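Researcher: Next sequence.
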Amino acid sequence: MTDEPPGAPTPHAPPPPGTVAVYRGATLFDGAGSPPRPGTTIVTDGGTIRAVGRDAAMTGGLPADAEVFDLDGRFVIPGLIDTHQHLATPPDRAVAEAALRRQVYGGVTAVRDMADDLRQVGDLARATLVGEIPGPDIRYAALMAGPGFFDDPRTHQVSRGAVPGEVPWMQAITSRTDLRLAVAVARGTHAAAIKIYADLDETLVAAVTAEAHRQNLAVWAHATVFPATPGQVVAAGVDSVSHVTLLAHEGAAAGTLTSYKDKPPVDRARFAAGDDPRLAELFALMRRRGTVLDATAGMWASAELAGDTPESAERARADSALAAAVTAQAHRAGVAISTGTDYETPAADPFPALHEELAFLVRHCGIPPEDVLRSATLTGARAAGTEATMGSVEAGKLACFAVLEEDPLRDIGNLRSVTLTVKRGHRFDRAEFEEGR
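Model: Next structure:
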């Protein structure tokens, strides 16, 4: 019908198929395991990558109207992925849109939202996908937890107008719950995953995981669910676990993990050397099962979480040291680590929190920059369930990559030299962001 209204403008939409762009002279870190390749050309067609190859081999077969960009040796990396964001707790559309804008202009082309008010998150995901607003792609989870969790104030923030624990995006689960119906209801939010949060035992964690997988949803869990231990959560078959400091509860004495509100103290000194045998067994299990660790390692070092008292600052310092030691041990054990944040930098900061997380992994955990970049790209795509289309610069994948002035393998801080983000073929020039601040 020709008289239908067009809807909202989509100035940030992917270009239509047949719109060819050529990026020549890149030094490419493709995220797929190859060393950096100088003299590389990337050809995009609409929102996808058509071809990647040596400059000299990519001169023919291109349409006459293809737009050509000479990168003059600049560094190209896959679009970064933040695997732990909260965009709507509490919902604030203006704040969320500002964060998403800063992320995409800072090289971030996808995020995992780890359970919020999905009424708003679902619309943000739609708006960034079709190009109404600038921002990364958003994959999000619906939350499940035991009934005792739902007096948490955050659950009321994200369920306004309804009852926490009784909405499709945030459900209270017991042994009497019809899990087939509960998961189906969660799927109706268009969630990509179930997030298992708190106050569920190992039997329920395993049952939720099995039913979610049967209905083709991923399962993203807290590393300790209370009373379910990290080992029990991993053994249940979840796809990823979040918050590396929660893994320290694998060493808890039997019977001490009772509820999310009553976490026992952690003997941080026990893990300082990065060689705890209980964790070694857990990491071996995670490696065998392919469980991704969404570490959120740098969050305790952030200004956002340091608190405003000497006691809170000391607690954050101790948790930061614990996160660094356990993350380093996980990396040495061969565990797949993704890069989540669980916070955002202040609005005046020109770059998103993901830049801080990557720097923490290199500078405090001792992980080589090339491994950290893979964590932030291909492993992040795996954690989000999008490895087939994201996470590396390869023909057939989405045209999502960032252009940097300086080499991030020499200094991870060079991620801040980003001059251009390409997301689904649409160009986000960093200069536009700076002009709009």
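Model: DSSP finds twelve helices and 18 strands in the chain. The radius of gyration is 22 Å.
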